Structure prediction request, 181 residues.
Amino acid sequence: MLREFLHFRSLLCGRWDRIRDRDLCATWNANIMILLLLLLLLLLLLLILLRLLLPLLLLLLLLLLLLLLPLPLPLPLQLPLPLPLPLLLLLLLLLLLLLLLLLLLLLLLLLLLLLLLLLLLLLLLLQLPLLLLLLLLLLLLLLLLLLLLLLLLLLLLLLLLLLLLLLLLIIIIIIILLQLY
Prediction:
C-alpha cells in the first residue's frame, strides 16, 4: 500500500502496469474525489465566515477613525468640546480588544479546518469502507457546523457588547454636556 501511495501516477490510475489491484485504484480515485469535494466545501464555509466578519471589522475600523480623526460632522452631532482623554482611551482600548477577539476567532476557525483536513487524510489512508467513511465525514461536517454556530453566537454577543458600550458612551457624553451647560 505504501508503494502505491508513493507512486502518485499509480494512485491516479495513470498507468495500469504499476498497480496490481484495480479495485484499490478505484477506491483511491473515489477517496481523492471525496477529499477534493470536502476541500471545496471547507473553503466555501470559510468564505461565508469571512463575509460575515468583514462588515463588523469595517464598522470597528470606522469607529476608530471617527474617534481618532477630527472629521467634520453635521451640526446635530457636533460637540463643543472633545471627549475626555481617559474616556477616549478606554473606548479605543475596548475597540482594539474586540478586533483582537475577532482575529482570534478567525485563527481558531482556521486551525479547526486544518485539523479536520488532517483527520480526513488519516481516514482516507486507513482505507475504510466507503459507507463508513461517508458517515464519519457527515459527523465531522455536523461538528463543524455546530462550531460555526457557536462562533456566530459569540459574534452576536460581541456586537451586543459593542452596542452597549456605544450607548454608555452616548450617555456619558450627554451627562458631560449637561454639566457644561
About this structure: Residues 130-180 form the longest helix (51 residues). Helices lie at 2-6, 8-11, 22-68, 85-125, 130-180. The radius of gyration is 26 Å. The chain is about 80% helix and 0% strand.
